[in-house]
Specification:
- There is one protein chain.
- The chain is mainly α.
- Helix content is 49%, strand content 6%.
- It is built from 20 helices and 5 strands.
- It has a 5-stranded parallel beta sheet with strand order 2-1-3-4-5, sandwiched between helices.
- Helix 5 packs parallel to helix 18 and helix 12 runs antiparallel to helix 13 (235-248).
- The longest helix has 32 residues, at 2-33.
- The protein is globular and about 90 Å long.
């Protein structure tokens, strides 16, 4: 037996060594001759990330909410990141936006940030979109997720040939639309809407969450009731109500994959000595309330508070757009500011995009009043509201002054002959229904 092992071992070692050598030769050929084109083919965003991380002072990582605009009414079609650049003319602001991305994808994007020795002393600030809706089942089990995960393979810093092999072998979350739909339905059926963690660190946030909607213990039961009720309502409004339940009727907790990604991003940026600031977006709370009163809004408010609490607990800087807007204008934004009138997205008009950019730039400007050599004390932007916004870190000693904003020029001509398809009229009819009056105005204790 020993003689056989001594005889086969050298041959096996030589074959393994030859296979490894062939792999590295093939990798070198692939990297220099084919990888660039194939990387651009499978993941065009990766090239944008390379450029943004290596050449910019501020990088805005966002999804479609960054670039979408209202074609009916917007005179300004600029993206949020472009408005930020106008406010900060002395700094280079780059944006990388991709439809349907979320915290899990943003986490993988950060792997392309060059090491500290390559960046040198040049500071880098990351502005990352935080969209509460993407933490829910409809977004987590989207049929576009496999495409996003395939692109994310090329965000990893590994041997190029390995990336290509992983794509060819589908070594990523490649569940198809049918499988994703099954996972989504299972979530709607099994996740209890009346159970939530009562472990907020921030005492100013609501601590109770008891049976927000006692009529519907799960999203599936809520959807089932919708399907059987209001048969005379227009299909458009019934589909809208169905979509809002699917997108917002969920309860965040620490087991949510997006929450894990949020925590890992904070830890990774701390390890890489990066400034990271999350921009907490504003869901279409107005339409949710017009559809279901406080029943659905309760979940939106709780989930937003959950995100605020966890970011405070983990020392994550963020800009609280919902709170800042309510404090400035006295209420949450009207549903007319949202481009998509029949589906809950964060696609907003020029007014909202400029407001978001102003809050980002305002934080930069306030931070610039402090000496760069000192760490200024934390101070809430709106202490009267218990706002959890934290000031942005300094990006450079030459931060653009908020008052020296580059004046934007109109780059879109609204067609006033086309009436914007608003949902307000049908929503008013919906609120007259018996189902809305009896159930959706239910006000649980503490809400």
């Amino acid at each position: 037996m020993k003689h056989w092992i001594l005889d086969i071992a050298p041959k096996l070692f030589l074959r393994m060594a030859l296979a490894v050598a062939i792999f590295f030769v093939a990798n070198a050929y692939y990297e220099h001759c084919l990888y660039s084109d194939e990387r651009n083919k499978f993941s065009p965003v990766a090239i944008e990330l390379d450029s943004a991380f290596s050449q910019s002072d501020v990088v805005y990582l966002g999804e479609s909410s960054n670039t979408s605009f209202n074609p009916w009414t917007d005179t300004f079609g600029y993206s949020i990141s472009q408005f930020v650049q106008m406010h900060l003319p002395n700094n280079k602001v780059a944006s990388v936006s991709h439809d349907g991305v979320h915290l899990g994808i943003f986490e993988k994007m950060l792997a392309l940030i060059p090491p500290q020795q390559e960046r040198g002393s040049k500071p880098l600030t990351l502005l990352i979109t935080l969209n509460m809706r993407t933490c829910g089942p409809s977004a987590m089990f989207s049929d576009n997720e496999a495409s996003n995960q395939q692109e994310a393979v090329f965000y990893a810093r590994r041997l190029p040939l390995l990336n290509r092999m992983f794509v060819s072998l589908h070594h990523y979350d490649n569940r198809n639309a049918r499988e994703m739909e099954g996972e989504k339905v299972r979530w709607f059926r099994t996740h209890n809407l009346a159970i939530a963690q009562d472990c907020f660190v921030n005492e100013s946030l609501p601590q109770s969450f008891s049976a927000v909607n006692s009529f519907y213990p799960t999203a599936k039961s809520w959807l089932k009731d919708l399907a059987q009720s209001n048969p005379n309502q227009p299909e458009k409004i019934r589909n809208m109500a169905d979509a809002y339940v699917k997108e917002f009727a969920f309860v965040l907790n620490d087991a949510n994959p997006r929450i894990h990604s949020l925590k890992r991003i904070a830890k990774l940026c701390k390890q890489k000595d990066l400034n990271v600031v999350f921009v907490l977006l504003m869901p279409n709370r107005d339409h949710a309330k017009l559809l279901f009163g406080n029943a659905l809004v309760s979940y939106i408010d709780f989930n937003l508070n959950f995100l605020r609490d966890r970011m405070t607990q983990w020392g994550i800087s963020y800009i609280d757009i919902p709170t800042l807007y309510r404090e400035k204008y006295g209420d949450y934004p009207s549903g007319q500011h949202y481009t998509d009138q029949w589906y809950p997205t964060e696609h907003v008009d020029g007014h909202m995009r400029q407001f978001i950019a102003e809050q980002i730039a305002s934080e930069f400007a306030q931070k610039n009043t402090h000496s760069p050599s000192k760490t200024p004390p934390d101070h809430p932007l709106l202490p009267s509201s218990g706002n959890l916004s934290r000031p942005l870190p300094i990006v450079s000693n030459h931060m653009g002054n908020f008052k020296k904003m580059i004046t934007p020029k109109p780059n879109n001509l609204p067609n006033w002959n086309i009436k914007m398809p608003l949902s307000d009229t049908l929503l008013q009819d919906w609120q007259k229904t018996e189902l809305f009056n009896k159930h959706f105005l239910f006000r649980p204790k503490g809400i």
